[in-house]
Amino acid sequence: MLSFFKNLWDSMDAEKQKRLLAEKLEEEQRHLDTEIEKEENEKIKKGENFNMQNVLRSINAPQNGTLSSNDADKCFQRLGVITSLKSNHGTIDHAIFFEIEAAGGLASELKVGCHVKYLAYQQVHSDHIKVVQINEVSELFWDESMPTTEKIEQQIAELRNEKPTFFNTHQRNILGLIMERKPSAIVVDTEHKLMNINLDTIEIDFIPQAGDRVYICCNVQSDEHFVNRQGEILQEVSVHPARLLKQEKCEVRRLNTDWGVLNNDCYFTLDVVPNACKLDVGDIVLADLIECERDPYIWRCVKLSLLERKSPQVTTPSKAGTTSSKAGTTSNGEIPSDMNSRKESNHAITVSDDARCIFSSTFQTKRIEMVIKNNIERNMRVLSIDFLGRRRDSQVKLVDPEHDNTAFEIPGHSSRALVFEVESKFYGESREFFVIKFEKFRVKRSISVVVCETEVEAEAALAQPNHSTINGLNGGVQNLRQRSRYYANQVWSNKGEVIPGVGLATKRRFLSLRIAYYEVPERLRNAYLTSTSRQEMIDSVENMFPCLKEELNIKNYTIRFQTLVFLEEIEYFVNFRNYDRERAHFTRDGEFLSLTIENLSERRPSLVIGDTVRAINPWSNDNDKRSYDGVIHKVLFNRILLKFNEGFQSKYNGEDFRLEFYYSRFSFRKQHFAVNRIIKHLGEPFLFPSRVHTREEPQLQIELNSDDNLMLQDKHYPWFNQMLNPIQKRAIRNILRGEAKNMPYVIFGPPGTGKTMTLVETMLQLIKLIPSSRLLIGTPSNGSADLIATRLIESKQLQPGDFVRLVSQNQIEKELVPEHLMPYCATVDMAADGTCDDSMIVTESGMKLRCQMKYLGRHRMTISTCTTLGNFLQMGFPTGHFTHVLIDESGQCTEPEVIVPLCLVSQTRGQVILAGDPHQLPAIVINRFATDRGLSISLLERILGRTPYLRDVMRFPDTSGFDPRLVTKLLYNYRSLPSILNVYSELFYDSELRPMVNEKSSREAEMLKKLDVLLPLSEKRPKSHGIFFYGTRSENKQESDSPSWFNPLEARNVFLMAIKLYRQGIQPENIGIITPYLKQVKHLRTLFIEADIAMPKIGSVEEFQGQERDIILISTVRSSHKFINSDLRHSLGFVQSAKRMNVAISRARYLMFIFGNPHLLYLDHCWRSCIKYCVDNEAYLGCDLPDDFDSRPELKKDETILDQDVSK
User: Structure pTM?
Assistant: First the structure.
């Protein structure tokens, strides 16, 4: 019996082994088929098989009475011979590949050697032929033996003379429902068939999901045999939503972990919510909706932007520093403090009102009393007195009774005093709460501590119970703005003879290309400058240019951007009127006339070399209306040096003139030129990509080996920078391959991730591996250009002559060119070659001045700002001269600025690389109207909103959801301790950033430990926690002549923190102070100057972008709710300005102190998250927190907590 079972088991085991072996063989066979299919496809695509050329010649041969044309897509039917056949594909006539699915029910009849009649489709300008359907099969070989090669070739030769039948084609929209979303494909159910559509081969303007209703634009066969003339579907062209509602106003009704609901009939996934936007139920959003079928939802949101927050319970200052609310109760059901009008006889217990203690400086001490009165016969027992909130940085201490948890009794009709000691520890206002606990109830009271800078401020605060009054923006400033517009229009309208001044260099008459003047249209100028209200101006301008109300598209691209640039120039002209003088005179200074201008270095916009000053004689008669232009040749600390016409300058004798200042329009003209040219130069696929277009061959057949080293044609190429991380290497590899055709490549570089390092390595590899390459490197600022040039020098791979740093004369005159870059620098002479003498000058430092085309543009790399590179537009470089354009910090450039150098890139073999971060500060645009209509949105940010560049985690899970052919997102952060990095990584970068600074053993961690004495005491807070919030409730102010804000008490706190850091050995150069308002910058600088103490760098957020410091102190300034609605609406300061906040909090390496009013900042979700992060880690100090952050002692079920006295 045992032997029987043993044999049975062995036989079963043998069967199992056979089955496994068969499965393995089948799997290997499938793998081999797949590899063979790939090889055959490659052969077909590359045209390596000569039979393809024969087939194409046969198809394209002139036909009498046929519909064939070399300039149109071809749909044809013809006979062919099956020459190879696999399990899922085959070939016809050795050349035409087909899928077995194309045979449908005839698949089982297919054999090698049989004749087939097939319907095929060939797109214009393509050699690829797609077999749409096999209609008939005729057997020629009935025996089981395979036909010989000679017989197959004979049959092919016989059928080659058969002429194909051609059909017309047309486009048709087919409705469908997406049944399944695969990583790179969608399965769509239509009335015709179930269609499997490859997302790489179609245009699509949204990220599809299962359940979406769509229409598919298809090329179809025109067949007269059908009633609707529709034959077979030949090719899917594009997929679009069946219905689309744009900018719908919706309310957030429900929020789940990763999805939510709008208006009850629409759902959205959280990936469509912009970074740093945290939604709440009740918020109002603008949403783009597409039709779907996901019961009970009929719409899906594909794009979303926050329009209006659900109105929060905003607390405002009231009597004695308490907070007021509506309708007699607070939001948490407590009775508010202002209900203090009841008579004592109606209460068992009465307690003194909330107290207020005012100091004129820090480190002062006062004692105050609060009285508890028992109004009934029986004794009342106080169980304890409990302080609410944090005690670590409290300024109030109970001294009588000595212990707050000591119980005591108050006899009937008697009272007991509570004595508190208050010590002023930090400037501003703080409110501390405590609860007096009785047996059945509690009474809550507060003590407000107000610390002023001077005795005068303290006396003013005592005289005014609600001291937090704000000097708001008065009507005078707004009236002044309107008057300045009328005045600007008057100046612009002045006509008369102008005698030009002496320029910086001889004006060249012969240019290869002359850029037009692009004058601002008079009707636009009048509408903008003479309207009596902002709304009237908006209506007038939009009626003149309806494109401003439309979404940007290829049709309105030129006129829309031209109008926006005109509007920016108008605002620039208005601001320049601040320099105008009604009466002024010049003084002689050698060959120049000198004009003194107070505070010249601090004025904006800045005067630069080449700007002009127009001198107008106010006493001239009607016969002499001439005015004289003086060209600025030098800009000094508080004066400018000018050269006028010789006749004016030689006769000038100290007379007074009315002065008008004018800027050089050349940068605006270059932008207009580029806007007019770019569509013809690079076209719609570049500016408005809707699908990935790939090159026939990659730019370089380069790969990374297993060690992440570059391999080209089996040869190893080393990295110039050995410190690159794997993601940086993949980015460079993707750029070198350049698989996408005529589409910009984006290096998405969050703060501290080595974006510039990646860009520099890319440049070096491009000029090494592509000998024919010539690179233009553009930046938004000279500082960025200098940094790239410095990094190239430090690489020690280039010598003078390999690259040139193009600079302006203004930089040279202001001595802004770094000494180590001088041998690499040059200025431009735009004269056409051969039209004038070579006037190049080489200075002692090595700078080359007035270089003509024969010198410039020949270097392998040219580095400059985008605007300065525009000088090359007039120099007549041949088409294709520059092969690559790389833009660093491209998020800080407007789109018209970026496309200036893009107009120089080769159309056929060019490549554009945009490096930057769309979540950091955009370009500075001074015209608010133009900002609201998209001028401040960079090309980088706009491109990343197009479908091929959108984040699609399902499709690209290994590359942060981005198509590696188009985008690389850098993730390794080398700047900040993890505790600081976590905040901005979570808010703005999907929590993907990876800290490379060790929180235990790094230099940053060691430095933070040394400053532990300055940090608030805590046992819970990690030792490596480097971000702290310093709560300050104080007064923000404005001066009558400026809309900028400043906050003296907050500035004092920042100043004192800097002093404490100095005392711990921190050097000023390791500290940065960031604030969003110019007035606060000036106020902080004044504090350091008056104290005669070394000053750290103090500046706006814009000044710190791209920089980093060991320690950052942030002054948020705003402390009043009075103008909060305006701040929220216009993203002023740090409130509701996620990009500004992101830059500010991502500058620090190991320590950051944020000074601000938590009661105002908590209204912004980003700031609320930041404050809560600090509170949770016991890294908060300063004033009391909003109620949302209060840590209250738990109540028993039978207890009630009240803000007012308890009735009998």
Answer: 0.82
